[in-house]
Amino acid sequence: MDLQIHIPADEQAINPVCNFAYSWCLNCGLSEQEASKFTTAVSELVTDIILFAFPQSENKFVDLTFRQTLSDIELIASEAGEPFDPDKHRYNPENALNNGDFEGAGLRIIRRFTDDFLFINKGKEGKEFRLRKEVNIHDIDELIELSRSLKPKEPEKEPTKVSYSISQITPADAEDIAKLIYRTYEYSYTKEDLYFPKKIEKTLTGKEKLGVITRSDEGEALGYFAILPKEDSNIAEVGEAVVSPDYRKQGIMSNMMEQLIKVGREHNLEALYGKAVTIHPVSQRVNQKFGFTSTGLMLLETNNVVFKGFDEEYPQPVSVVIDVLPLQENDPKDVYLPAKYHQILTETYQRLGISITPKKSNGYKLAEKSDADLEINYSDSTSDIIVNKYGPDFKSVLREMLNSLLEQENPNAIYLDLPLENEATPLQLKELEGLGFIYCGLAPYFHQDADYLRLQKICTSFDFDLVDVHSDFGQQIKSFITNEYSKNS
Amino acid sequence: MSIPKIHRENATLTVKIRSGFNLWVKNIITTHTSEEIETLDIDLSDCNYIDTEGIIFLYEWQQNGRNLQLKNPPEVFFEMLDILELSDSWQPNIINPNEESL
Q: What is the ipTM of this complex?
């Protein structure tokens, strides 16, 4: 969840912001001491912006976004003040002691009191600072003990036939979901949040996820499958699928997927999508079975996936196939397809059954300046840049953002989403030449209910042969990407 | 209310910090610290955080040969002195009533 505050660049704003930040940290699950440290970092950042980004100007403002996910908190400060490079302001203790020069002291504190401190230079669009802190309420063992969850019994050898029913999940199911995850994966499941009943309960109470749970007639939880609504669009991701090992191979997963599709339609979602890993074809097969269409291949999308029972020695970050299932009929929409991707995009639309009218640009007016959002996935070492508007500074803004990310984050991959319903996209794509982006796929309805062309920039070496894509069209996409990647490198 | 409570008696300025010690709070205190003030007595019992603006102000106050007394600084205060490598050269006078009563 995001909370946004628009503050004047005035020292009087420091106290209210910091008081809010401290309470927010506590609410997000930080201890008093950790909240104190993060608030100190916020105070340092806001003070530096006020003092140095706007040394003389009046009526200038700073936008603060307080972002909370299940596993971390992030403060994003955006401003358009004087140019600044944090690396040029390093703290020197000797200078401080001998000459009273404390330059860079605040930045040192910020770096020590946060898990990530990131500076994004957006050129003329201004600057963005990000402070991130992981939230670990308790060790997993301790929390499970606290929630009085008993260690589950080992699975029986023979699959047990059972009569069951499927219903929508409620906050009361949180503890059973955590147990199911443990029963299935022990402690190898990548989404650590799912071991925390209290965190699951919070997401269910806040309606951050929808889903279904399968119970036997005696009330025992047998399986769980969720859809996670996307914050910036009316679609949802399918995921977090588990069936207790004792009760597999009797159609529970398939029945839950059918229910999820029904739930998605009931909530008038435009589409469901899944990110199916490519270290094995199981998830992709399940998606295909229920009519999902592969629309893209995100290379190196996630770090170190470990699935119990599958290959645990996978030597590179895991790539994922984007599988999409549209849930609503649509009126034909006007899209502007770049020539080099026209054919593959058109075929993807056809396979999805999404009706489009490809248009040619008849001249367009650029925005005064570019507008792009940045999402950083710290744990997976990836970033996604989402272009909202093109301005004359598009290439320079993008180049600055890429440089900031490459220098500070050492990412595996950077994804770039370009709006296909924007007339400027075909020509602006040419501006990207030389920046190392290649095709990734079609991302239908992915932002503000609009369709996007997703590109990707691969920042580390990897082996294409280890990317296992199941569907015929998925393989076609992989082949297209492989060719472009070879040409680029 | 986050405005620090400030009281002057002769050459001593007593300040009770509420919530945090930052640039804004520092500037409020500075408006009360005329040449006649020799001792600064700061109660940090209710202080949740202190940033470098606060730390540097306190450090410089004492470096300038004036008296400083800190009551119950938050833990983050000591950690910051370590991070800024000031711990060895600066030992502020600290009172911790909780420890005294033990």
A: 0.92
